[in-house]
Structures are given as structure tokens and as C-alpha cells.
Amino acid sequence: MKRIIFSLFLVLLVTQVKAQSTFVRFMTNKDDITIMLYDETPKHRDMFLTGIKKGWYKNAEFNRVIKSFVSQGGELDDTILNREKRHPELGAKRFAAEIKPNLFHKKGALGAGRDDNAEKASYFTQIYLVVGKKQTDAQLDAIEQKKNRKIPAAQRAIYKTAGGTPHLDQDYTIFGEIVEGMEVADAINAMATDKNDVPLSAVVFNPVILSKKQATKFQQQLKKKKIYTHE
């Protein structure tokens, strides 16, 4: 496994929050990606951990990859919606949104996929990793005007230097971020795809919950490199 490289880019990438307690490693056939789950979104954190333990993401795939946007993994929308159509008696089960103003779609963010339900509730078995692109002030100004919301200065700075997908903010739940292996996520997002954004070569991943000892080691590494900038 490649060693952790902490740079100014990563310092900008990581959310300004208190040290988090839960880490998950996506073991892919391209290399590994380690993700820190946010304690600020405990319901999504626990829902994802439960899904991992129950095997919902065993041999899952990044099955919808849109370059410079996101890499989506788990079940596709059509798979979920068609199953619900075949079994209307089960209803359309969604997970209540946990949208926080300080958790946003910067590069490396982990989000929960959803359909167009008015409550912005999440699917149980679909996630995505944000790649996005760097934004200009003009682009951010246009998003502010369209969505009638102000983008905080600190978030603007990250969108301008590291990148992301700011037009998705406040519409989807963000519940974690990459702390190791962003280069792997970039490589996955750059893969050749067909007209439906499906990678021509399958990208399989198996998420593994890091032990308490492993998580503590990660916390120490992040703090040593002053990744956590707000207590």
C-alpha cells in the first residue's frame, strides 16, 4: 500500500471538524482508499457501518463514473427503483437526510445517493465519491444566485483550490471524506466508460471497518500533520 502523503492540498481537503472516530478502508482492485466517517452525521455513519457488516457492499462496484464529477458505487438507481416497482408492497424505503451546512461537496467527500424525493432522503445502498473540478469566483457566484444561498468563504477557498461539486450542496447528505488514497479515487474517476458512464473494466470494492487501534493510529497521524484545524 502506498504511504500516506499529507500535503497542502490534503490540508485544504479535510473538513474543519473535531477528530472523527470511525474509518473505513475501501479495498478496490485498483488499490485502497481510506475514508473518515463524520460523527456529525451519526445516522448515516451507523447506517453505512451496518450495511458493511451485513454484506450489502460485498464485492460492490463503482458502476457509474462521471469524469470530473463523481464516482458512484453500490446499487444503481434503476436497480433500486425497478425492485420497488416489482414489490410495491414493500414501499420505497429511504433514509432520512442529515444535511449539514458545514459538510459540503469538496473533492474527496463521501455522499449518499438518492432519487428525487422531496425530503432529500438517501438510498440505503448507494454512495458516491466526489472528484469535481476547481471552481472560479464567477462559477461560485452563479451557483449562489441560482440556489439563493451564500457559500461560506472557507468553502469557497477549498472549491477554488482543491475543487468539488458545489451545486450539489444542501441537496445530498455528505457523511465522510477520503483521508488516504485520493490518487486512487482520481484514477477510478478517469477510467474509460461506455455511453451510460459504466466503466469498461469493473472496479470492485469491499469496504472494511478499521479496528479501534487502526482508527487511533489514523487520528494520531492526522493530528500530527495538523489536519484537524478546528476543535
The gyration radius over C-alpha positions equals: 17 Å
Helix content: 25-40%
> What's the overall geometry?
globular
| SSE order | HEEHEEHEEHHEHEH
CATH topology: Cyclophilin
Give the biggest beta sheet: 8 strands, antiparallel, barrel
What is the averaged pLDDT score? Answer: 88
Whole-Å distance between the termini?
31 Å
- Supply the CATH superfamily name: Cyclophilin-like
Uncertain regions: pLDDT < 50 for 5+ in a row? 1-17
Strand content bin:
15-25%
Question: For the record, what CATH class applies?
Answer: Mainly Beta
Biggest sheet strand order reads 1-2-7-5-6-4-3-8
Enzyme class: isomerase
Domain PPIase cyclophilin-type: 32-210
Protein name: peptidylprolyl isomerase
EC number: 5.2.1.8
Task: Write a brief structural summary.
The protein is α+β, with helices and mostly antiparallel strands and 231 residues long. The chain is 30% helix and 20% strand.
Describe the structure.
With 231 residues, this protein is of the alpha+beta class. It has seven helices and eight strands, in the order αββαββαββααβαβα. It has a single domain (8-224), classed as Cyclophilin. It has helices at 8-13, 42-53, 77-86, 137-147, 153-161, 182-189, 212-224, and strands at 22-28, 32-37, 60-66, 70-74, 109-112, 126-130, 174-180, 204-209. Strands 1-2-7-5-6-4-3-8 form an eight-stranded antiparallel β-barrel.
